[in-house]
Amino acid sequence: MKAAIKSPKSAAAAEAGAKAAPQSGVKAPARPRAKAAPRRKTAYTPAEVRAIFERFQAIDPEPKGELDHVNPFTLLVAVVLSAQATDVGVNKATRELFQLADTPEKMVALGEERVRDLIKTIGLYRNKAKNTIALSERLVAEHGGAVPRDRASLEALPGVGRKTANVVLNIAFGEPTIAVDTHIFRIGNRLHLAEGKTPDAVEAKLEAIIPADLKRHAHHWLILHGRYICKARRPECERCPIADLCKFEGKTNDVPVPLPALA
Ligand code: SF4
Fold first, then answer.
1. In angstroms, rounded to a whole number, what is the distance separating the alpha carbons of residues 72 and 103?
2. Residue 31 confidence (pLDDT)
3. Which of 14, 21, 197, 223 is most buried by its number of CB atoms within 10 A?
4. How many whole angstroms from its chain centre is CA 182?
């Protein structure tokens, strides 16, 4: 009798079952591993990817970040402070901080102890205060008090990683970077739009599939979609503008909400 051809899923389940089954003592000969197919960039056609981002654009043509700031420096500090904290919480803490210090020079003059006191409602505030002062000192010493526009210089600053650099490059300097946060990471994987085990892997795939003319605001659109509609616990598929395109197996609706009329 011929063995049934297994789908990758059932094959994986069978493999898992085989692992869990008690061993007979006789070792099966090692089977050569099938060569893994190259991982696809996305489950969507280029036309579908374009349609997704054009709908986001129709709803919100000029999306804005939700971290309050008055210049590139205060944006940089706000993003550094936002790690493992909500934007609302950061905005509350930075209101007074940025009134007192909106330049690296003023931040250095304010001092670590005072900064620590002003941001103590934010998680990890001790370390964040230390980084805020250290990065301000570096900006004064190495960049004439300005925020550099290149990724390498940004990532060399204390407390600044790839995601923070991407946010600053995008919002302060208009670069088409994609900062993968928790929402974008979830959407990339859930929708099979840009699957990856790490934020960098998701970022690389989004970079590769999003059309150049829609890249500038892509990260904001994805964050807003993840924050307000495609939520972590229960995606609100009934309010979703891309419900017909979405390839998430667990979606509960496939009729998209109507888009606002385009001017
Ligand atoms: S249909 Fe549901 S799962 Fe798919 S993108 Fe919309 S909210 Fe998310």
1. 9
2. 55
3. 223
4. 5
The segments of the chain whose pLDDT lies below 50 read: 1-26, 37, 262-263
Give residue 4 CA to ligand 1 midpoint distance, Å. 34
Is 243 near ligand 1, meaning CB less than 6 Å away? yes
C-beta of 80 in contact with ligand 1 (< 6 A): no
pLDDT digits (tens, 9 = 90+) for 44-53: 999 999 999 9
CATH topology of domain 72-171: Endonuclease III; domain 1 (1.10.340)
pTM equals 0.80
Query: What Rg value do the Cα atoms of the chain yield, rounded?
Result: 23
Distance CA 204, CA 92 (A): 33
Does 157 appear as a known binding residue? Answer: no
CATH number of 41-63+178-258: 1.10.1670.10
